Every structure is written in structure tokens, then in C-alpha cells.
Amino acid sequence: MDFNDTAEEAAYRKQVRAWLDKNATRKENAKDIAPPKDLKEMIAQSKAWQAKKADAGYACITWPKEWGGGGGTTINNVIYSQEESKYAVPGGIFAIGLGMCIPTVMSWGPDEAKQRFVKPAVRGDEIWCQLFSEPAGGSDVAGLRTKAEKDGDDWVINGQKVWTSGAHFCDYGILLTRTDPNVPKHKGLTMFWIDMKDPAVEVRPIKQMSGGAEFNEVFFTNLRVKDSQRLGKVGDGWKVALTTLMNERLAVGGSQGNADTDELISLARNTDIAGEPAIRHGGVRERIADWYVQAQGLKFTRFRTLTALSKGETPGPESSISKIVAAKKMQDLGSFGMDLQDMGGVIRDRKISPEEGAYTEQWIGAAGYRIAGGTDEILRNIVAERVLGLPQDIRVDKDLPFNQAPKGK
Amino acid sequence: MNFDFSDDQKMLKEQVRKFLADKCPMSVTRRVLEKEEPYAAEVWKGLVEMGLTGTAIPEEFGGLGLGALELCVIAEELGRAAAPVPFSSSIYLAAEALRLFGTKKQKETWLPKLASGEIIGTLAVSEGTHAAHPRNIAVKHAGGKINGVKQPVVDGGAASLAIVAVNTGGSGEQAVSLAIVDLKAGGVSAEPVRTLDPSRQHVTLTFKDAPAEILGDKTGEGWSQLSRVLDGAAVLFAFEQVGGTEAALEMARDYALERYAFGRQIGSYQAIKHKLADMYVKKELAKSNAYFGAMMLNDEGGELTEAAAASRIAGSDAYVFAAQENIQTHGGIGYTWESDCQFHYRRAKLLALAVGAPIQWKEKLVARLEAKNAA
User: What's the sign of the alpha-carbon dihedral A84, A86, A88, A92?
Assistant: First the structure.
């Protein structure tokens, strides 16, 4: 038992480090580099970095070279991500496109679509978003209502999507629609790729509780798409969507950048309870211990997954626990960090708060993190059903035509 | 990254699992508990014949000379079966204390007998309902003899050897030594104690001028020796807890699939599904922490204490939760004497207390983390 690389892994890591040293700045040396001043500049920097990676074979490392990928293994990809996370590089905006959308195009799209889209996406020339969630279909995605109707050789699309990350700067998207409301909900869906710059597509940012706006609502008013933009057969949209969701990248990356037990211990050494350092208080000590044990449990669960990948095996289901634990821990720890600052815990002003409002930000953000990408409840269902083999919930709309199923407003 | 057991270790695990599934079903645990047997003699004999007692004892002292990782996989299977045998007392505690701190002569005297299963050993620390602490060690050692009372001592009735925490005079931690006591040499009486888990026998040991030899070659080192022995045992018990959690979760899962209420399998209700998902989450956190504990124990790594504490905290939390919620999932039938749920319920709490309660380990852990943070 050890944490060491195999000889090939070590060689690959060395090669990655050498390349990164030459082409990027380590985080500890990047303090003076100004962040991009606006979205346009951020996107330009991201695209330039992605193209550089693609040229060196570090974009889409596991994809075949003929599609612009690196022709490497999953563990190569993990090693690259581990190393890249130590450098100040732009990132994030291609994750959904390359992690979910393009794999779907590759699995289900006609040849012309693959030839047209895969390579530009790998190089970062074009950015993709995923249009699944709707006001009436969050956890129950298949309850969506956006309509696509056949009109000659075209389809005409009307409806609304929500929580679309990056829709305001994306070039293309994959869109899940309802093409037949007269059959049960999973059977009447069809997937298309669409041009996000089409005037029939309107993107409106959603202001979140945190004050930020990372997501959007997207409206379609008589959007015309060609039948050749269809991904998979008419009515097979659910099957196609499952490919997309299966391709969600393995959560084996680094930390979320939030405060953890070490920061909390520092805080508890510098705050007090009844005139004594808070760290001396049993209630504080017990919470620190519990969160430390959770953090270690998550870290070593990730190491177990990496070990399976390193051996070329399929990882077990243990990684499915990560977000269930991490999101709630992030929320509770944020809340407790504010408690330790007592009345001052409400301060969110970075200039006044010695902690730069970190615990407050973490606590506010955690409310969203517990929902995004699968709520705590849906994730527990997944563990219960897929890992433990328990039955699915009773679904009263399962066999009813979609247009006769019970619906709220 | 190679954060896993080897194929040989997994094969050993499979052998132990098969043996226990065959020879140590829950009916055996029930028999030991109901008949108040000291332990399941035939199961113990089988484990000894498989050579398992000698696993981590060096070859020169009659063992196989394997390491902690092999003991960990055995522990996980003993835990899964809630096996009513003195393996933990004899091996994780007595044999490990001797292996780590005994003189050559002490090892030569005792380790071959523990390896061959000729005798059973145990560790006697507790003197009642106070946490283990130098202040709470009153059994007095003087002139090669000890006097006082230890309770509860698990397997103290079946054991021929006890490593006893004693007071050798002085102050604080320096007052504590570990002593080797031949329980058959006179001056020792053992009275059974009623406990929450009678599938593992506990006794009160009373020493009256019982001959005792200090472990190692000098007095006053007992507290740090004990601490190291308990760190190792915490990791091994964590593997028992992981095995036990898995067994309790499987019981709950199977019942949730077969039991119908309101026209549906109860496992189709989210109240049950989420409860079982939570058991799984806790089990995986416990397992991952225990793996790191195993690695630190095997390598005598610098983070052994933190890893042992984390293993113990996560393992205790997982098994107690799973055992409690297993009964809850079963409903009324789970609370009956005829149900096997009780064995995990009892064992889970016993294991959570056996080498110190989680709250004590949390304190030990945070003290270390605090010191590191300050440095």
C-alpha cells in the first residue's frame, strides 16, 4: 500500500510538469497577476490556453488523436488535472461541452456533425452548453415541456430551459425536447444540437441568492432546426440524455477551495467563548474532529478510486458518496465558522472581516451546491437504487401519456 | 497510486470469510451469548489451525511474520461475522504489546504460545467507569507483585496471560507501567461481569500479590506503550467495524426488499432508502479512513495516531449507526430475542467502547491537529 506513481505514471507526471513549467505560472508565483478584467477577456484567455493544451495533447487526454484528443489513459488525465491545479490557468468554461455535450454528439450524431464540431470544441474555438433542466423539470428532467414540432424537413421549437451554465457565452448547445406528448414521458423526447446565436434563442441571466449570475434562463420562440441536427432517433431522447449524464466527469479533482478543518482550527485559536480561546471548548473540538474525519474519508475514498483507475480497473461505486458528504459539510462548517465570530459573523464585507467573509460566502454558496448537479435527495436515491439495489420510487406518471399525467402549475 | 490491499491479502480475506460463513453463522454467536460460553471454542480452534493467530508474530517467535495489512483483512471478516472469539484480545492487544515492547526473553516466553493458540492473552486497563488515564490506574505494582482490581477485562476468564496497566509509583504518565501477568500462577481471581454483549465474555480480575513482570526492561514507560498499542488496535477494530457495518447494512437491505407495507416493498420508500444510503455513506467514510490507518500501521508512519483516531471515530460512527438503523428498518421483529439484529446492536456498541470511546479519541485527535496548526 502506497501513494506512489507507477514508473509510467511518474514519467508522464514529469513530462506534464515540464510542459506546465514552460507554459504556465505556479499559483504561489501568480499573486501579482491581475485576474481578467471582464468576461470577454476571460474567454479569450481560456480559449488561448485550451488551444495550447490541444496542440500539446493535453486537451481531452483520453480521446483518440484523430479527434484532436491526446490518446491517453484515464489515469493520465487524472495526473494532468492534479498537476494543472497547481498552476494559475484559466479554466472551467469548456468542462460541460467537452465533458458532456461533445461525447453525446460523438455517440449519437451523424458523421457530418462529428466532423464539423469535435475538433473545434477540443481546441476551445467553440463552447457548448447543455439545455436539459426546465422550470417544470429539475430532479425529474424527463418532465420537461419544451416542444419540438415537425414542419416539413425542419423542427420548430418553443419553450424554456433554466439553470443553463454559460449560455450567455456559448456557441452551441444540446437541447432535450418533447416531440410527442401523447406517450409516457420518457418515450416522447428527442435531442438536437442548436446554434445558441440564433435570434430565436434568448438568454437571460439568473441572479442567484449569492448575488452572482453564473446560470441562465434560455427561451426558444419558433426556433427552426434542421432534422439533420437531431442526435439519435425521434423518441430516443432519454436514452441519448443518459449518455450525456453518464459522461459527467469523474469527480477526482482537487478541493473546492473552501475553508476546511485547518482553517477552522486557526479561527478557533483566534476567537473565544466565555473569555477563553474557542479551541479549548469541547463543543468546538468535537466538531473539528468530526469534520476532519469526514474530510479524510473523502480524500482517501478518492485515492481508492484513483487506485482502481491506476490499475486499469473500473472504480467501485464508493465515489458516489462524495457530493452527499462534501456539500453538507461545506454548509455546516461555513455556518459554524460564522458562529465562532459571534455577532460579527454576519459581516460579509471583505475589508472588515478578518476572514474576508469566507465562512459567510461558503455558507451561502453551499445552499446552491447541495442542489446543483443532483440534490442531496436524488443522490441518496441513486446510492439506494444503483448501489444497494433498492426499488425505484413508485412513479404515478410512468405509464400515462405525458399530456394526461398529473402536473402542478 | 496503490491504495489497496494486494491480491494475496484479498485471497486471505476470502479464505477467512468462507471459513466464518461456514463455521460461524449468527447461530454460533447466539449460542455463546445464550449459554454464556467464554467463546466459541470450535471457531477459535479453526482460526488457530488456519495459522491466523500467528499472522503478524515474527517467524523467530513462532509466527508467520506477515504484517498489519494481513491482520486488517482478517479483522474485517471477524467483524462481519460478529465472531465470538478472543482474537482481538489475544492478538491485537496482548501479542502486539509483547511484539512491540517485550524483551527478547519475554517474547520467547509468550509469543510462540499466543501464535500457536496454546494460550489466550488479553489487555487489562480499565478499573471501572472512568476513562483510561494515568490518574485512573490504581492497581499497584511493588516487589514483583501486583494488587488491585481490573474491570471489565474482556476474555479475562479464558486468558492465561494479561498485559496489565499498573502503577509503579511516581507522578503523571511516569507512574504507569505495563506488566506481564501469568493468570494461572496464583494470586488472581476472575469473576464474570454482566455486560451489554455477552457474546464476548468480560470479567473482573482481582489481583492479590499476583506475580508480575514489567513489560520491556524499565518502569514508567507504560503510558506511551499503551498509547501505541491502542493506536494499532484502533485501526484493527476499525476494520471489524467496517465488516460489521457491511453486514448490518446487508441485513437491513435484504429485509427492506422482502418486507411489504401499504402494498409496497418498504425499500421503495425514501425514508428507508435514504436511511440505507446514509449507512452506505458512513461505511465508505469508515473504510477509507481505515485504509489509511492500515497503511500507517503497516509502515509505522508518522501519522499513525491521527489515522488511528480517524479510523476509530469513523468506524464507531458507522457501525453504531448501521446497527441502530438496522433494527429500526426491521421494526418490531428487530427488537425480539429471536431476531439476529441484536447481535450487531450489542457488538457495535461494544466495539465503540472497547479501546476507548470516540469522544476520548476525538480529544486525542484534536490535540494533535491543534499542535500541528500552531507549529
Answer: positive
Say whether residue B267 is in contact with chain A using an 8 A CB cutoff.
yes
pLDDT for res A253: 39
* pLDDT on residue A250: 47
**Domains along the sequence of chain A with CATH:** 7-91 (no CATH), 128-246 (2.40.110.10), 261-373 (1.20.140.10)
Phi and psi of A289, rounded to 5°?
Answer: -60, -45
User: Which positions in chain A touch B288 (Cβ < 8 Å)?
Assistant: 296-301, 303-304, 318
CA distance B61 to B103: 12
Amino acid type, B14: E
Cell numbers placing B286: 469508515
Contact across the interface for A2 and B281, Cβ inside 8 Å = no
Report the relative pairing of strands A189-195 and A172-178 from DSSP bridges: antiparallel
Cα–Cα distance, B121 to B181 (Å, whole number) = 10
Q: Domains for chain B: give ranges and CATH numbers.
A: 7-115 (1.10.540.10), 121-220 (2.40.110.10), 223-374 (1.20.140.10)
pLDDT of residue A72: 95
**Could you give the count of Cα atoms lying within 13 Å of B2 in the half-sphere of its Cβ?**
10
pLDDT by residue (tens digit) across A110-154? Answer: 999 999 999 999 999 999 999 999 998 888 999 999 999 999 999
> Which residue in chain A is spatially nearest to B6 when comparing CA positions?
A1
- Residue A392 CA: distances (Å) to CA of A382, B121, B275: 9, 50, 15
Chain B nearest-CA residue for A6? B1
Distance from CA of residue A7 to its chain's centroid? 32
Rounded Cα distance, B309 and B365, in Å: 6
Q: Do B280 and A387 touch (CB under 8 A)?
A: yes
- The span from the CA of A182 to the CA of A405, in Å, is 10
Phi first, then psi, for residue A215 (nearest 5°) are -120, 170
Question: Best interface-test mutation with B: which of A8, A376, A390 has the largest number of B CBs within 10 A?
Answer: A390
Q: What angle do CA B183, B51, B202 make, to 5 degrees?
A: 35
CA gap A47, A229 in Å, rounded = 25
Cα separation, A75 vs A6, whole angstroms: 11
pTM reported for the whole predicted model: 0.94
pLDDT at A357: 84
Interface of B with A in 234-253 (CB under 8 A): 249, 253
With residue A195 as reference, give the H or E element that holds it.
strand A189-195
What residue type is assigned to position A71 of the chain?
G
Q: Which helix (H) or strand (E) holds B209?
A: strand B202-214
Taking CB atoms and an 8 Å limit, are A391 and B298 in contact across chains? no
Model ipTM?
Answer: 0.95
**Contact in structure between B233 and B198 (CB atoms under 8 Å):** no
CA Rg value for chain A? 23
- In this prediction, the residues of chain A whose per-residue pLDDT falls under 50 are 249-255
Q: Which residues of B touch A304 (CB under 8 A)?
A: 3-4, 288, 291
Contacting residues for A314 by C-beta, under 8 A, at least 6 apart: A308
Share of chain A above pLDDT 70, in %: 97
Q: At B178, is the secondary structure helix, strand, or coil? A: strand
CB-closest option in B256, B268, B370 to A394:
B268
Beta-bridge mates of residue B123:
B163
Rounded to whole angstroms, the maximal C-alpha distance in chain A is: 78
Mean pLDDT in consecutive groups of 10 residues from the start of chain B, 375 residues: 96 98 98 97 98 98 97 98 98 98 98 98 96 94 97 98 97 96 97 97 98 96 98 98 98 98 96 98 98 97 96 98 98 98 98 97 97 93
